[in-house]
Fold this protein.
Amino acid sequence: MSEHVVPVKIYVTVFVTLLVMTAATTLISGVDLGPWNTVVALAIACFKASLVVLYFMHAKYSPKLTRVVIFGGLFWLAILLAITFSDFVSRGWIT
Amino acid sequence: MSAAVHEPEPPEPRDNYLTSAYGVRSWLLTRDHKRIALLYLASINVFFFLGGLFALLIRLELLTPEGDFVQAETYNKLFTMHGVTMIFFFMIPAIPAVLGNFFIPMMIGAKDLAFPRLNLLSWYIYVVGALFTFWAIVHGGVDTGWTFYTPYSTASSNSHVIATAVGIFITGFSSILTGLNFIVTIHTMRAPGMTWFRLPLFVWSSYATSLIIVLGTPVVAVTILMVFAERVLHLGFFDPALGGDPILFQHLFWFYSHPAVYIMVLPAMGVISELVTTFSRKNIFGYKFVAFASIGIAVLGFLVWGHHMFVSGQSVYAGLIFSILSFLVAIPSAVKVFNWTATMYKGSVSYRTPMLYAFGFIGLFTIGGLTGLFLASLGVDVHVHDTYFIIAHFHYIMVGGTIMGYLGGVHYWWPKISGKLYPEGWAKFAALVIFIGFNLTFFPQFILGYLGMPRRYHAYPEEFQVLNVMSTAGASILGVGYIIPLIYMVWSMRYGRNAPANPWGSTGLEWKTTSPPPTDNFETPPVVTEDPYVYSHEEVEVVG
Amino acid sequence: MADAAHEHASAGTPPGALQHHFESMAQQKDAASLGMWVFLVTEILFFGGLFLAYMIYRWANARAFAHASLHMDIALGTTNTAVLIISSLTMAMAVHSAATGRRRLLIGFLVATMILGAGFLGIKAVEYTDHIHHHLFPGPGFHYPVPAEAKPAELFFSLYFAMTGLHALHMIVGLGILTTLLLMARRGRFTPEYHTPVEISGLYWHFVDIVWIFLFPLLYLIGRHLH
């Protein structure tokens, strides 16, 4: 496997972006967007996480197997969340 | 076969993994995957017989309709401890940690697993977890059922829930690390020429099993943590008083525990593929179908957990989806059964002990699997849920299936592991006793369940007694059947005939090295040039 | 046979770095990297169970959860998020330093990461103490200012303490790992050809940061738009 040294510039750019997005998510959370607050917050979190995975964790420079592993883990989490949630939603469950 | 006696007994190899170092420290601090496999063999056998002891006590109580042997609360503890010890401390680790550990590196042509020290740590973690649970057992046990359903386990039970839960939690990490080790090993340490489609099918099943382990076990781990937090720290997750849902526990629990049954059966299926090809002297029918069926079982197995919850209060719509998916998951298993059968067709079949176990597996697993289809039907399950029908169903798969696969594998590879031959006559006898004892124990339970006898009750209506007595008689015979191999295997280590490198005339890299193997498995690292299971049509003397 | 492969290990590889059962440094590195990624997948599923509980109970008690979230200290939470992001940068820089053979920088960045990690835990300790003083720890001592929402609020705080507590435990383990790396770095164990432990520890540290990236909005920010 070739050793890819990621340039410091990329790290710094990602770092600044992460801080900016953190400020953004905190600020946006104070604005009432109704149901979209959650969507926006999660979208920003996913974007931040992707930056960390791709650049800090070198996923962008890693073999295909690494990406399969990451995708597999996330997909399995999605199975757990989606199918269990579908039970609660279709049950008419109220506390 | 007496023809084999003409072969002179081979000398013991001068230096092998058993003789390379002596003393307790050389075993307790070993990094050799083969020695670690034997450490596991010893430990899981202890828990197998402990679990069997609980089974014996259960069956003694059920000899009579009245609850006259033990009190109800004690009975609850007996079936709980039977389930916990058998599932978490025997069935889940057995084939992977013993046969997988020993043979995966050899089958792929490697010197060891990817992470030998992690492998040893896995064993120590297993032992620590086992000790926690053992502590709980001797201090009065647990009475929640191995399923630990809330709110009983979190709020009401006065038994040692925490100690047992902690024990299972810890041992779960042993399982996770083993699965992780296998995945990395199979991906990165195959010998030159060992492509994915030249791997023995035991490696494919072990790989699929490892996928299930790393994806499912963490979920039951966090679930146990949540039970712990609720019981000890009074955090609320499943507490209806706070608006929590006990059924959420069941979702989290079964998300792992259904795939767990595939952790238990897939490795055994891998063993059967090896046995059927060797003892039919024939290539597997449909190699890729069998290989992909293992992956299919692993994937589909994660989508069906709600079939344990049809009557729990889960939504009917979820139940419908889980029911359909549960029918689907039977398909890859059926593919395997058909392909093993087709492999034997026009093969040169020999009836050695390992093959007897393979026959037993195929027949009994099929019965267990078919009854699983009955249970996948919502309408049927509503009536037989929590009855002895369920108990019979899973014991046919777990005991008639997995344990037969385990015994078949241990017998098949015993010459390689120990350098000795077990006594074939006694082995065949034990296999027969086990087969008879097993069916006498569990077939009546299908009938009992269908007639309505509930599980987890220490007393029952009088009309069920005859079948219960048959079942207890069968269990006694089965118990004797399991003790016989323990005796002759140990005997063979000292007094058995030396085994040649390849007593069965089998293909596979593990048979190309000495019995027992050297510490590094091979004198020279192998290079693979042909497909697995390439058998010639000439007659070969099968020793033993 | 195997010795030849070991001799071919490049001059920059410290003696004994290639373990006996591997054929090459590349194979060893691939194995270590894949092993850590597979471990992180188990961690995704491990935290996933708690995220499932959060998702369901928040869906069923949206308003009460939002109100309960207002008891979080937004300044401390945002600060902690920034602290972890900075620590991810320093960790990435530590790996970079190891890959370029700069031992002093490696040590410096490892120390910086540890200080930031400890700082995070310190702030969390302050938060926990504050919550406990306000009777917001679930159980018999739980007391909530809005009785009508007390039960779902107790669910919220159960999830809060469980999720951030589990996260904090992972941070503590991370600090232990960094300490080990620091000791190894000081002894000159890492070179551009061999610094795999630093890389895979970095993967772990970044993962723990990612968990917090999700915990922060889900626990601290869900009620702010209601004001």
The radius of gyration of chain B is 23 Å. Residues 72-108 of chain B form the longest helix (37 residues). The interface with chain C takes residues 110-116, 176, 180-181, 183-185, 187-189, 214-219, 221-223, 225-226, 229, 233-237, 241-245, 248, 251-252, 520, 524-525 of chain B (CB under 8 Å). Chain B has one domain: 24-512.
